[in-house]
Sequence to fold (124 residues):
Amino acid sequence: MAETPETILYIGTHASDDPEKACLPFVLGNAALAMDVKAVVVLQTNGVYLAQKGFAAHMPPGGGFPPVAKLIADFQELGGEIRVCMPCIKDRNIAEADLLDGVTTTAAAALNVAAMEAKAVFVF
Fold:
C-alpha cells in the first residue's frame, strides 16, 4: 500500500484587497513543495480572484515577495494543487472556464475532509 504524503493545506481569502496576504499561501506552498511536502491552496471569498485567468498579472507585489502571478505559476509548475470555492466563484460571476488551467473547484464538505487529512492548515 502506498504511503500517504504529508500535506499542508493553505486557505487564501485575499487577492488585490491585501496583496501581502494573497502571496502568503503561495510563498509557503512553494517552500513546502521544495521540501517534498504536498501543498494544496484553497481559495475562498475574495481569494478566488487569484485563480481567474489574467487577474494576478495586474496585482502589485505585496510584502517584498515576488509578484503573485509568478508565485502561482511556480506553485503550479512545482506540482502544487489549487482549488477554489465553487459558491465563492458563483457569487463573483466567475465561470469555471475563466479559471487558470489545472484549478479545480471544491465546496464545504470536501474542504473539511482535506483539512482533517492535512498535517497542518494555515489560513490567510
